[in-house]
Design a protein that fits this description.
Elements lengths: L3 E4 L3 E6 L15 H11 L7 E2 L8 E7 L2 H12 L5 E9 L6 E11 L4 E5 L1 H4 L6 E13 L4 E8 L6 H7 L18 H8 L8 E8 L2 E4 L8
Parallel strand pairs: 4-10
Antiparallel strand pairs: 1-2, 2-4, 3-4, 5-9, 5-10, 6-7, 6-8, 8-9, 10-11
């Protein structure tokens, strides 16, 4: 059932649970866009639905969906601009970052064949059109020394493929549950058990989204405990 946070004639903001696809793929699982289209039709409205900020399947949180083509064009353009939306996330990461707050600036390149992204050195990125500048800011909320897990708040400045996941993993602080980018020695199995993550879940949630000068927020599905 849709968890609708805000709705107008042009947009709908939904709290997506971890494990649900944002958009359709092979298989029979109900994706978020299809669910919104069905909801719109049940309200006697156009079944049109265009996702603006897609979240990875294992990630939970706020998703903005346009209900018509003009709104899709407007908000898609804003999404492409740095700082176009104020996007805040919360995550649990393995270990403890070197500083209690900071900024990550990297160049990321997506590999469509493996559905992964990787950091490209700055000198090589200058000659690689596929390497995209990627920036985020983070701040530590709390640290559990026994579990060696840190709860962080993240301001996502750009929106690259797997950006948060790659930037933290590259600094040896992978997100709890993110086996795709975890190193073998990060203690991932113990971290996942310690916070009781569900199947197909990464400890990452889009907790806050500012749209049209209004901010909408939700609580993450996870905690250190």
């Amino acid at each position: 059932m849709l968890n609708i946070i805000h709705e107008t004639k042009d947009i709908i903001i939904v709290n997506k649970p971890a494990g649900q696809l944002s958009q359709g793929a092979k298989g029979f699982d109900l994706d978020l866009v299809s669910e919104v289209m069905t909801y719109n039709a049940s309200q006697g409205k156009s079944a049109y639905a265009a996702i603006i900020n897609r979240l990875d399947r294992p990630v939970s949180g706020l998703v903005l969906i346009a209900k018509n083509k003009s709104a899709a064009a407007k908000y898609s353009t804003l999404m492409q601009k740095e700082g176009g939306f104020n996007k805040q996330y919360e995550a649990l990461i393995c270990g403890k970052p070197s500083e209690p707050k900071g900024t990550f600036v990297d160049y990321l390149k997506k590999d469509g064949r493996t559905n992964t992204s990787a950091i490209v050195p700055a000198d090589a990125a200058a000659n690689d059109k596929e390497a995209k500048l990627s920036k985020l800011e983070y701040e530590v909320i709390s640290y559990d020394e026994v579990k060696d897990i840190t709860h962080v708040r993240i301001h996502l400045i750009t929106g690259r493929h797997h950006q948060i996941r790659v930037q933290f993993a590259s600094r040896r602080n992978p997100l709890v549950g993110d086996y795709k980018y975890a190193t073998a020695d990060c203690g991932m199995d113990n971290a996942v058990k310690a916070v009781a993550l569900k199947r197909n879940q990464i400890a990452l949630c889009a907790v806050s989204l500012t749209v049209d000068n209004k901010t909408y927020s939700v609580a993450p599905e996870f905690s250190i405990g």
